Amino acid sequence: MLKRNYIYVLNHLKINIAQKNYYFDLKVVPNAKQMLQILYSLGIIRRFYRLHSTWYRVYPAWRSSTSAYKRIKVYSHTKNPLLIKLKALKILKHNVGGSNLVLNTTRGIITHQQALKLKLGGHLICIVF
To answer: Which among 35, 53, 99, 126 counts the fewest CB atoms within 10 Å?
Structure first.
């Protein structure tokens, strides 16, 4: 399994949405399950449930003829991860508009709104436009 399992989830999501699959199965570990919960709360996936011990079935969200989001841009790298401090998050809050930043913090994987409430910074995983 990959070192950064949540990137595995994002890549599978992007590939299966591009192929317009109704659902897909993937192997999930605990921190990747947090990513699924974040994507569910953002409305990117309709639902997900466990098939077996570590296998989950994921249903992407769709609107009439387009997907529920315009784009997911992944910023997580194994070398030189992009660290966003609390001060930078406060500045970015005004510039992101309808986008959502997903961060890996000491409290797990959370959105930038939750990070601002908890007064935390973290490593940027992705931006959902």
So the answer is: 53
CB 110 within 8 A of CB 38: yes
Per residue in 10-58, pLDDT (tens digit) is 999 999 888 888 999 998 888 788 999 999 999 899 999 999 888 999 9
Task: Say whether 47 sits in a helix, a strand or coil.
Answer: strand
User: What pTM did the predictor assign?
Assistant: 0.85
Tokens standing for 12?
């599978």
Beta bridge partners of 108: 105
Euclidean distance between CA atoms 72 and 13, whole angstroms: 10
Question: 């997580």: which residue's tokens?
Answer: 76
Radius of gyration in angstroms for the set of CA atoms belonging to the chain, rounded to a whole number: 15
Residue 1 CB neighbours (<10 A): 10
